[in-house]
Amino acid sequence: MKILVPVKRVVDYNVKVRVKADGTGVDIANAKMSMNPFDEIAVEEAVRLKEAGIASEVIVVSAGISNCQETLRTAMALGADRAILIETDAELQPLAVAKLLKAVCAKEQPQIVLCGKQAIDDDANQTGQMLAALMNWPQATFASKLVVAGGKATVTREIDGGLETIEIALPALVTSDLRLNEPRYATLPNIMKAKRKPLEIITPAALGVDVAPRLKTLTMAEPPKRAAGILVASVAELVAKLKNEAKVI
Ligand code: AMP
Questions:
Q1: How far apart are CA 108 and CA 83, in angstroms?
Q2: For a pocket test of ligand 1, which of 91, 127, 180 has the largest count of ligand atoms closer than 8 A to its C-beta?
Q3: Judging by beta carbons within 10 Å of its beta carbon (0-12, 13-18, 19+), is residue 225 exposed, middle or buried?
Q4: Span from the CA of 169 to the centroid of ligand 1 (angstroms)
Q5: What are the beta bridge partners of residue 18?
């Protein structure tokens, strides 16, 4: 059974991005880039399924610029067998990525596509769901536990106020939540080994996909700055301020 794991190259979670002065986007020139953390969790889960003898091959795929090769090499150092880069300089929105992944699924015929639940740059949380819809596959999003057996996946999902366990037939789409596992660190020997693993580079045109953006960002702005706090002298003053100034009681 093949598992396909889409991995996105995003601004590292430790970087605090700034909105560009003209409000057209965020400034990520020279920012440290890393694999989307939820995708790292997805790679780890797929590799564990391979180590357990359930999956036979783990393929990672990224859509984006040439530097995404680094992200794919990292994923292979974590245990993925081979990689596909769909190389493009175009701005990719979730629908375009879902269409690209659909074309890759048609070629690779995976039984499971294991995405991250969301990319921490745009926070869209759409690509997996859109891919499931395009493939007409069942989907289990926000997985915190995944058991694969007998042509089915049993997935425990993190939902508001608790957990939900569902069973879906394969092929299916699963998205990883934070608590699914704790990804391993890539060891030096595995980083070296990953350099020799196959990495295929294709283009959206070769997959017959039009990636033109369908949505236009009108403007982007920083959240309003918080006003400085003040010290009050007494509880009575605090209550008066909450009542008359903040108007919350
Ligand atoms: P999003 O819908 O943008 O929040 O992304 C959800 C998931 O879709 C990510 O965690 C990745 O697994 C996958 N994904 C999104 N964009 C890309 C991309 N450019 N290349 C590969 N995978 C992606």
A1: 12
A2: 127
A3: exposed
A4: 23
A5: 27
Using the structure block, give the residue that is written with the tokens 């089915």: 152
**Closest atom of ligand 1 relative to the 119 alpha carbon:** 4
Query: E strands along the chain, which residues?
Result: 2-6, 9-11, 18-19, 26-27, 33-35, 57-64, 82-87, 112-116, 139-149, 152-159, 162-169, 172-176, 199-202
User: Over the stretch 182-209, which tens digit does the pLDDT of each residue have?
Assistant: 999 999 999 999 999 999 999 999 999 9
The residue nearest atom 21 of ligand 1, judged by CA position, is 62
> Which atom of ligand 1 sits closest to the CA of residue 6?
22
Positive or negative, the Cα torsion across 68, 71, 72, 73? positive
CA gap 66, 196 in Å, rounded: 17
Confidence at residue 98, expressed as pLDDT on a 0 to 100 scale: 98
Q: Which ligand 1 atom is the nearest neighbour of the CA of 115? A: 12
Q: How far apart are CA 192 and CA 170, in angstroms?
A: 34
| Alpha carbon separation from 133 to 95, 98, 127, 228 (Å, rounded) | 11, 9, 10, 47
Who lines ligand 1 at CB under 6 A?
6-8, 36, 38-39, 62-64, 92, 94, 97, 115-116, 118-119, 122, 124-128
* Closest atom of ligand 1 to CA, residue 123: 4
Distance CA 155, CA 145 (A): 6
User: pLDDT for 153-176, tens place per residue?
Assistant: 999 998 998 999 999 999 999 999
